Amino acid sequence: MPEGKNKKFRPVFGGRLSGTLRVLGNEENNGEGLLFLGNYMALDHSRGAAVYLDALKPHAVLICGKRGYGKSYTMGCMLEELAFLHPAIKGKLASLIIDTMGIFWTMSYPNASETGRLKNWGLAPKGLETEVFVPAGKVEAYRKRNIEVKPFSISIRDLSGSQWCRVLKIEEVSPLGILLVRTIESLREKGHHYSFEDIISEIFLDTRSDPTTKGAAENYFRAVKAWGLFSKEGTSLSELISGGRTTVLDVSPLENENVCAAAVSILAGRFYAERLEARRAYEKKQMGEKPEGKEFPMVWLFIDEAHIFVPAGRESLASEVLINRCLRQGRQPGLSLVLATQRPASLQPDVVSQSDLLICHRLTSSDDILALESSRPLYMQESLRTYLKKMGSEKGAALIVDDHSESVHMVRIRPRRSWHGGGEPSALEPYAEERNEEMTVQRSK
After folding, report:
1. Fewer CB within 10 Å, N- or C-terminus of the chain?
2. Where are the domains of the chain?
3. How confident is the model at residue 444 (pLDDT cuts 50, 70, 90)?
4. What is the pTM of this model?
């Protein structure tokens, strides 16, 4: 039985599961724009009523749990639900996931491996219409593996001199850092896009640096060019997302975490800015004025391995944008943020305190549990450790803390309808397949 002030249950109208309906994140939801998360898990671990998350309003969600217990799987379920919404609602939303592990491209395929389990839930396998983007320099490598992808790049001009120093791990006050900042800021002041060749030319025009420093700067930028992530113009937001689309941005080929953080910072900042403009236009329209500019959908930004981008004890290139804009202010203009991590103790503490929905799978590390306990709300009648102990070790089980309704729920997450690419490999898998074939042959005899 759910706890807290919100004890209202509503009948399901046109729902996929019969019975009662519990909507997390929005008490006023009338049954539209719902994401089916799973079912309540009773103390005897039997399945109870359906649990849904509101998608009409923006949310800040933190998903955590130890490896192999369902973080990425749950993110996939949420992406599926957003993709399967009614077209009238879906068209106003756009989903993009920052895929650090290269596992979400499989969502375009139906989950044929769990047909029986899906049937028990009243569901059927179904792939998503997704568009997968990878760093432009890595496109051919994916296509050789028969994975259809599109090129993604960031405009070189989007990074300041200071940010380039952080990406390249160069001290700003060193001779090389001073040259780099001076060069980049000089080009940015001209107000137009520029290429790596333009940067290198500008470096050698500098009269205050020695030839050795100039040569080192040139080598750095030639190495960056080989990453295949940066270009003169960059990928436009309209190419990347639009209403009703599900986009996977696979950054797994990028080994440099600073580069990944820079990409996330730029994208999240642009999403936030576009949503601010869209919100202003909406308010003008409500007041009877003619809005200016194009519409921009409400964005659901999913980020796996979130501790890379908002780490505890230090700032990454993405920390300021994700925490100060997306988490603290993003809901007002219509930007949802979903972060997943297996290491809550390695997250910036504000991530926990600013999230309005916590989905916690199994955790066993004391440090991780304490990190979540530090922001435990008063309406939780027991400690997080106690709730997790009651939940047990079942994969897919989750403790959900909904700050909107000030309630706590124990839920079994539903099975994926699209193919899950994040399962751990096993040395027994080939043997199991061969053994199943042998048994099939024997039965046929």
Report:
1. C
2. 10-153+235-413, 155-231
3. very low
4. 0.89
